[in-house]
Amino acid sequence: EDLSARCVLFIQGLLNAYNISHLVRTIMNLHVALSKPMTKTAVLSLCRLLELLKAIEHTFHRRTMLVTESINHVIQHLSFKTLSCISTAKKRIMSDKRYSERRLDVLSALVLAELALNGPGTKERLLTVKLAMAVGTKMRAFKEDELQIIDDTLKRLEAISQLRLKIRQACDCSFLYWHRVIFPLYLDDLVENVTDTHRIHYMVGALRDCVPQMHAVKHLESSQKMMESFDKEITKNFNEHLLEPLCRSIETDLRLHIHLHLQLDDRNPFKVGMRDLSHLLKVKPIRFFDRTINLKVHVEHYLNKTFYNLTTVALHDWKTYGEMKNMAEQKYGLTLMESHLPSQTLEQGLDVLEIMRNIHVFVSKFLYNLNNQIFVERTSNNKHLNTINIRHVANSIRTHGIGIMNTTVNFTFQFLRKKFFIFSQFMYDEHIKSRLSKDFKFFKDNHMLTDQKYPFDRGDKFNKGIRKLGLTPDGDSYLDQFRTLVTQIGNAMGYVRMIRSGGLHCCSNAIRFIPDLEDIVSFEDACKQDELSAETQTAAKNLDNVINNLAKNFAEGTEYFKMLVDVFAPEFRNNKNNHLKNFYVILPPLTINFVEHSISCKEKMNRKNKVGAAFTDDGFAMGLAYILKLLDQYHDFDSFHWFQSVRDKFKKEKEEVSKQAGSRDEKLQQTTSLTLKRLDQYLQEYELLYYSLSSARIFFRADLTSAEEEKEKADSKAASAGNSTDDQTNVASSQESSASKS
């Protein structure tokens, strides 16, 4: 009974597989042949049947040991049943004593059948049994019911003997290649309704059945091309319909969890439903062609990459992404890596790389403060202004590496080159050139009368007169545009200064852990001394290189200002740029223009509409100091005694106004006090500009002319040459003394 039950069970499984296979093939092929669309429900039902088909095959495969063990016993049992019937038939024939050749043939056939059945159930033996029984059933040796039993038993015997092969044939899903369009729908449903997620292995198994037939293709040069195309198509479906939606859904879910304090859509699971995506993450790796698709690892990689990239874009969000990582571990069991980004300040500000790439925008949108070494945004659509200081730059350098400093200075050089071209064009303009020559000649002829001071009225007249040459749509004169150009050049130099300070700041922060900079221990030597492994010695050597590099950068620092002066100065001082020689003559009207602009900006600070308001703009002083150094005109400008002339002018005006203050007229007194206040404000601005310019000149060693600098260089070279000569003399004398001794 047990063996019969097992036999029925095996055959039932085989029949189910054949029925399902026939049903799926028929429905799919009919829809294709008749060009009839299939509903989504029908497609998903067919997918379920395909899964069931592969599940049957998989079940037989998993229970191979049990099936193999049972099959021999079942075959033996079925053979015994058949032999019993044949034995009965033989007795009937042998009981009849009449001799005939026909009876002898039947008997021989039955004996042959018996011999074939007494052995393993191979194809040949079963075929022999069938042929023998075709002869053996003549002469009514068997009763009807016996024939039925024999026929049924032989069929079972055949099925059981070739069970493995027949199961493989019944469960073959190679026809799915022509209907693979259903696969994306299946994946979409799997992500949408997360139930029985493990069944995806059965569907992939069905797709895998398409591969063996591809080896036999003849219409292509190589079957490999077809397989690659199939692989690419299925992989694309996997990515677009399973992996990407899954990653996005999990990321969205984590975000909604972390931002529950915000007013979000209704997330009540009783109203909007609930998907537990963790079931998909528990699916074992899926084998397809020569690789495995691990859903969990893919999602982990996606979240690691997304969180890292978004944290680098907005460093102040690091805490949010940290919480999301913890939530991913608790809810989905995802193990995410730490970002390992360098520690940042919460007010990171603009990145050095971003500024470097858009330096032309930066110098026009930000204002420089010389004393605090800070850049302040000129205007903003937000309620706050962005600032950039040394700490921000140091953090950026720490993030990107010290190498970025040289690249930044190189970008600044390219920017200055373009700006100096415009600068040269302005100075070459006939109106400007002739006016400057005229003013210079006037000062040269009348400097004794004006007490060696450039007259304030002359500069003021130039400032107002240039407006007659034309204005921009914004109402700016040519001198206003020139002032803006000088300011932008100065802002660029201020940025270079800040880069250098930020680099030193970064180096000092990194090097503070080294106990004594004068006596740096060599880790490589220490490792060699202790005879540590080669890898450890290599690591120690790398550490030594890093420490030495830091110490060198900290001790020296690069003189970027000197570099930017040396690279442009020869060209500026060249005779072919003779039109620049009167640049210092334009400074008086230019400073007047700047002071008027500065006061106008500061007054706007107190207004409700703060468009154009500013409280600092030291880029102008920085730009003037740099250009004067390039043209070697510090002493020429000092010969004007311009700021002394300004002080004298305002002092004189204040004295005149003070004389009128004695009047008893109340209105006149109010006017006088306002005028004095106005004069004090102007004088204060000029003094501030004078101090800023004096400070900026220190960066470019304003105390030396180009001739004095050349002399200093020559002296230093001579001194170094003298030292080397002394060394050579000492060596020669020591050689002579050793020779005499020998």
UniProtKB/TrEMBL annotation:
Domain (WASH complex subunit 7 C-terminal): residue spans on this chain: 536-701
Single GO BP term: endosomal transport
Segments forming domain WASH complex subunit 7 central: 175-518
Leader sequence segment: none
Disordered: annotated span: 711-742
Compositional bias (Polar residues): 722-732
Limits of the WASH complex subunit 4 N-terminal domain: 1-174
InterPro entries attached to this UniProt entry: WASH-4_N (IPR028191), WASH-7_C (IPR028283), WASH-7_central (IPR028282), WASH7 (IPR027307)
Cross-referenced Pfam families: WASH-4_N, WASH-7_C, WASH-7_mid
Superkingdom of this protein's organism: Eukaryota
Gene Ontology, cellular component aspect: endosome; WASH complex
Biased amino acid composition, Low complexity: 733-742
Protein name: WASH complex subunit 7
Taxonomic path: Eukaryota, Metazoa, Spiralia, Lophotrochozoa, Mollusca
